[in-house]
Amino acid sequence: MSTVWKLRAGCKVNLYLDIVGVREDGYHEIESLFYPLPAPCDILDVHLSDGQGLRLSCTASDLGTEENILSRAYQRFAETTGFAPGVSVHLHKNIPMGAGLGGGSSDAAAFLSWLNARAGDHALARGDLAGLALTLGADVPFFLGNAPAWVTGIGEKLEPVACDLADYTLLVVCPAVHVNTRWAYRRWDEMRANGSVRPRKELTPENSPIMSLCFTKPPKLWNGFEEVVFHEFPALYEVKKQILNHFPDACVMSGSGSSFVALFSSVECANRCAGAMRAMGHACHASRSGEPLGLNS
Ligand SMILES: C[C@@](CO)(OP(=O)(O)O)[C@H](O)COP(=O)(O)OP(=O)(O)OC[C@H]1O[C@@H](n2ccc(N)nc2=O)[C@H](O)[C@@H]1O
Ligand SMILES: Nc1ncnc2c1ncn2[C@@H]1O[C@H](COP(=O)(O)OP(=O)(O)O)[C@@H](O)[C@H]1O
C-alpha cells in the first residue's frame, strides 16, 4: 500500500482590502491584509501511483475535474519542470466556493508545494514557484507562505506582517451565496466610473456617507468590495448587520465575498453569534490562536 499524504489547505480572510488601480490587462492592483485561518479547510488525500499523470476525484459534485485548479496546477508544474509523476488526489471540498476565502487558491498552493518537495533536481526555487503559482490565480502565491501578509500588486507582492490576533476568536460566517470574483471586480470598475465607489484613501466624510460615520471611529477593518456586493446582494448587508448585533470588536466581508469574518474578544459573544447565524442557515467556523475552535451553537 503506497503512502497517503493528507494535505490540509486552510482558507484566508482579507482584514483590509482596497482596490487602488487597474492595469492595462484589466487586473486590479490591491492593498490588502491577508490572514490565514485553519477553518474551514479542504483536505487533499494524495498518493503516488505508477506511470504518469494526475487522477483527481472530488467530493464537490459541481466541481468537475477538468476545470479544477488542481488539474491546472499539475499540468503547469509538469510543463515547467518536466516532473510528471503518477499521482492520485481525492479532494475533500469543505471551503465554500465563491466565498472570498481563497479555497481554490489554497488547494493549488498545497498541491504545488507537495509536488515541488518531491521533484528532486526538477524542484523550483521559491521565487520561480511563486511565479508559477501566480499564473494559476492571484491569491495562490499567498498560500505558499500561508502567513499574515500585506499584499499588493495583483496579489504577487507579499510583505510578512506581525498581526497578532491571539486575543480574539475569529468567526467566519458563510452565507450560501456565490459571488463571482471576476464579476465583483468588473462591477467595481462600473461603480468607480460613476463615482459611487472610490479607493479608501480618496474617501472623505463629504464624498462618502459611510465614511462620515466611520471617521469618528476609524474602521479597524475595511473592504472596498462591500459597497459593490451589498448593492447587488442586499441580503448580505443584512447578514453583516445581524453579526454586528452580537457586538464583535470588528467585522468585515472577506475578499469579493460572500463570507464575513468577525473578531470577538469574548468567546461567549462569538458562541451566541454562531448560534444565531446557524439558526439562519449560515455555516460558521471559529478559530482562536491559529487553532479551530468548536462552538456549541
Ligand atoms: C478578490 C480576492 C482578494 O483576495 O480574493 P477572493 O475574493 O477571490 O478570495 C483576489 O484578488 C482574487 O484572487 P483570485 O480569486 O485568485 O482571482 P483569479 O482567479 O486570479 O482571477 C479571477 C478574475 O478576477 C479578476 N481579478 C483578480 C485578481 C486581481 N488582482 N484583479 C482582477 O481583476 C480577473 O478578472 C480574473 O480573471
Ligand atoms: N479546487 C477548487 N476549489 C474551489 N474552487 C475551484 C477549485 N478549482 C476550480 N475552482 C473554481 O474557482 C472558483 C473560485 O473558487 P474559490 O477560490 O473557492 O472562491 P473565491 O475566489 O471566492 O475565494 C470556483 O467558483 C470554482 O469555479
UniProtKB/TrEMBL annotation:
Keywords: ATP-binding, Isoprene biosynthesis, Kinase, Nucleotide-binding, Transferase. Pathway: Isoprenoid biosynthesis; isopentenyl diphosphate biosynthesis via DXP pathway; isopentenyl diphosphate from 1-deoxy-D-xylulose 5-phosphate: step 3/6. InterPro entries: GHMP_kinase_C_sf, GHMP_kinase_N_dom, IspE, Ribosomal_Su5_D2-typ_SF, Ribsml_uS5_D2-typ_fold_subgr. The gene is ispE. It is an enzyme of class 2 (transferase). GO terms for biological process: isopentenyl diphosphate biosynthetic process, methylerythritol 4-phosphate pathway; terpenoid biosynthetic process. Its EC number is 2.7.1.148. This is 4-diphosphocytidyl-2-C-methyl-D-erythritol kinase. ATP binds at residues 96-106. Residues 68-144 form the GHMP kinase N-terminal domain. The active site is at 12, 139. Catalyzes the phosphorylation of the position 2 hydroxy group of 4-diphosphocytidyl-2C-methyl-D-erythritol. It catalyses: 4-CDP-2-C-methyl-D-erythritol + ATP = 4-CDP-2-C-methyl-D-erythritol 2-phosphate + ADP + H(+). It comes from Desulfomicrobium apsheronum. One of its GO terms (molecular function) is ATP binding. Belongs to the GHMP kinase family. IspE subfamily.
